[in-house]
Each structure stands twice: as structure tokens, then as C-alpha cells.
Amino acid sequence: MKTSAIAIAIAALAGLVAAVPAPASAASPEVVEGSVEITKRGPYNVFITEHANWGGRNELLTQNTGACRTLGNGWPNTITAFGPDPGVTCTIYDRPQCQGSQFWPIRNPGYANLNTIGWNDRIQSFNCL
User: Which stretch is the leader sequence (predicted)?
Assistant: First the structure.
């Protein structure tokens, strides 16, 4: 009688085990074709100073993404440090209206001394994305 009770218990357990769903196989990620472009939206800031290592006269300029900024207020050809916000990439130009020779990319934290790239006191305009 013990043998038949054990056989019944084993058969019942076997039925429960068979009822458990098999583990799902690892699903492969969906492939999406094309490219994704991420662009910082809205205005950004650029910190400029007259002297190296963020010294001397300074100003925080706010500018719309992609728009050219021709410097005024005594800044053309006087900037020695240039630092854009995080996530922003800038191009600097030695002529107004984003014309002339250019240098890029400039990303945060920027350059505390533009002498290191040959651009001390040369910037007249810039734009950033």
C-alpha cells in the first residue's frame, strides 16, 4: 500500500511539473533602421573671459542653438578663454557673421587659454549646436 501511495504522489508531482511553463527564450531586440540625431534645444550659454584661466573681464553669453553670434560690447579680438555649456559643441570664427578661418569642435569645459590652440584674441563670432 505504501508503494501505491508513493506512486500516486510521484504521478501527481509529475503532472504539476509538466504544467509549469518552460522559461521564455531570450527575445532579440527589435532592429530599427535609420539614424537618431540628438540636438540640444533652446538657448545655451558660453562663458568668455579676457584673460587666461577664466580671469579678467568676463561675460556669460546666452545664444539660440545654431544661430551665429557676432561679438560686440568690446569683445572682438579680446577673448582668451571660451567655455560652452555641457552638451554644446561650438565653432569659433576670426571674422564677423561666422565667416573666415574657423576652429572646432569646442566642447565643455572649453579652453581656459586659447593660446594653446592659436586662437588668443582672434574670435569675432561663433555658433554652437
Answer: 1-19
